[in-house]
Amino acid sequence: MMTTTTATTTATTTATMADGSGRQPGAPLSDRPTVYQPIAGKPASARGTRVPARVQIMGWLVLVMTAGLATVVLLVAEFEYRAIDRRVNSGLEQDVEEFRRVAQMGRDPATDQQLTDPYQLFERHLAGQYPDRAEVLLGVVAEGNGLNTVRQSDQGLDHVAFDDALLREIVNAPQATGTVQTEGGELRWLRVDVLPPSGSGQPRAWFVSGYVVDIAKADANDTVRTLLAISAVALVLAAGVSWVVAGQILAPVNTVRRAAAELTEQDLTHRIPVHGRDDIAALAEQFNAMLDRLESAFATRRQFLDDAGHELRTPITIIRGHLEVMGDDPAERAEVVRLCTDELDRMARIVDDLLLLAKAEQPDFLRPEWTSVPELTSDIDAKVRAIAPRSWILESLGEGEVWIDGQRVTQAVVQLAQNAVQHTQDGAVIRIGSAVHNGSVSFWVTDTGPGVSQEDAPRIFDRFVRGATGARDGSGAGLGLAIVKAIAEAHHGQARVVSQPGQGATFGIELPAGGARG
Question: Is 80 exceeded by the pLDDT of residue 99?
Fold first, then answer.
């Protein structure tokens, strides 16, 4: 009976893939630079070239997809090659284990005869084997100075020759496993030494199971190449889609940019159409709101300059005229000084009123807080009584607390009282009052003066508008009621007048109560 010695090892190979493109991560995707005008104090060359946002979006998406697809390809290749290594090693071990069992039995399974000839052993065993496409099974017998073989392999390996030099490299190797280079590529082999019975004089023999690894890995290589091709197509498609989508996403931003470029101090009327409810639509809304604020600010500035130029021109002319004709008489000089001082005081008042109207456009113009309507009305009544000797009557007190700026409301009502004083005589009846009703609070002043004509009523609260009747003393620049209107509108309310010519007038403001609480 023949005996065998076996040795098995498990070999592991790793596969790595390299990107041979030579492209650095994050390299610019567009070679066309964008030219900008130099910023004051800093040369254009010091700022570098800016990559357009559309190219950046596409570049980052392609970069992320490249990293993801490369990771997938590497993982698939690693799993495929490891699976092939396990299959090859498992196949080699299975082949030598089957041969070892047959050799240890030493009998032909079909005839039950003793097998003492290595050739018979190899032929009987290999006759029942069906090698894989990359597998070769060899029975090697040493006779004289040469090596003879009994071979079983797939037809695809017929071109792979095993000469004496190659066979001796395998059978003389100190280890029972290893690799050699053949015409078909790298061959991984596992060997079993077949020892003859003691004293039988039979030649020495070896059983060799081998796999041509390159052929075994051919399917895995095809899979990796297919994945690479698909990944390349996917990257091209992703680049195209991201370019189109980035253009659509950035289109509103470009619209904002073009609109901003078209804006001038003389023309702030451009607005951006708002579509949808996404972040871009919110950006357009905020940009339009900013334009509204800018337009209002510029309009306020222009209005202030126009008003100041219009109203200050007259007192300046009066002052200059008196100074130019002023003589040396002390009495005349004193009279000129008095007139100039009076005009300067009027100019100061006009400037103060204009500044107040300009400030009314600012967000910090009001400082609202919960205010008691009865207390505020009583305070206003006490203050207006000191303006002039009139018959002041507090005819109504509103109840509850409202969310308003008490100081600004006081300023508006006192202005209305001052307006009533200017249109009435000493001892005339002037009524003031307040009311809270249906979510709003009202303050009013009613006089017994000449009233307001129907022609003047629609524009009586505009700047520098004076009623046809005018003040008794001819004073005032026509800004008092404009200030009242500005305070009311700052509260999101309105100023009103109700009058019949010759029967007095009622001026008042109606403001939102801001959730009045009793």
Answer: yes
